[in-house]
Amino acid sequence: MKIEIITPDKKLYEGNVKSAVFPGSEGSFGILNNHAAMIATLTKGNIELIEESNNKQEFQIKGGVVEVNKNNVIVLAE
């Protein structure tokens, strides 16, 4: 699935990943390929990505929103 992590200053990440874990307002949650469409708020914490090459990427955020729709994930983060 394709993911973009965008902050007010710059685009932190853009690429294809196998999975993503987010610090949700109601607790952390994961996203895999073909996940149902959703929108969720994020709290302070780390976004953890597993790339298709099995490399792990981690980004610290202060909060934000994530939208999942048809294997496209967009994160608007602080």
Describe the structure.
The protein is an all-beta fold and 78 residues long. The mean pLDDT is 95. 0% of the residues lie in helices and 71% in strands. It is globular, with a radius of gyration of 11 Å. It is built from no helices and 8 strands. It has one domain: ATP Synthase, domain 1 (Sandwich).
Structural topology:
Elements (H helix, E strand, L loop, with lengths): L1 E5 L4 E14 L2 E6 L5 E5 L2 E7 L4 E6 L2 E6 L2 E6 L1
Parallel strand pairs: 1-8
Antiparallel strand pairs: 1-2, 2-3, 2-5, 4-7, 5-6, 7-8
**What is the CATH-assigned architecture?**
Sandwich
Radius of gyration: 11 Å
Please give the largest β-sheet.
8 strands, mixed
**How large a portion of the residues is in β-strands, by DSSP E?**
over 45%
Low-confidence stretches: none
What's the CATH class label?
Answer: Mainly Beta
How many individual helices?
0
Tell me, rounded to a whole number, the average pLDDT: 95
Question: N-to-C terminal Cα separation, in Å?
Answer: 22 Å
The count of DSSP E runs of length 2 or more, i.e. the number of strands, is 8
Instruction: Give me the strand/helix succession.
Output: EEEEEEEE
* CATH topology category name: ATP Synthase, domain 1
* Dominant shape: globular
Structurally, the number of domains stands at 1
CATH superfamily: F0F1 ATP synthase delta/epsilon subunit, N-terminal
Structural class: mainly beta
Helical content stands at under 10%
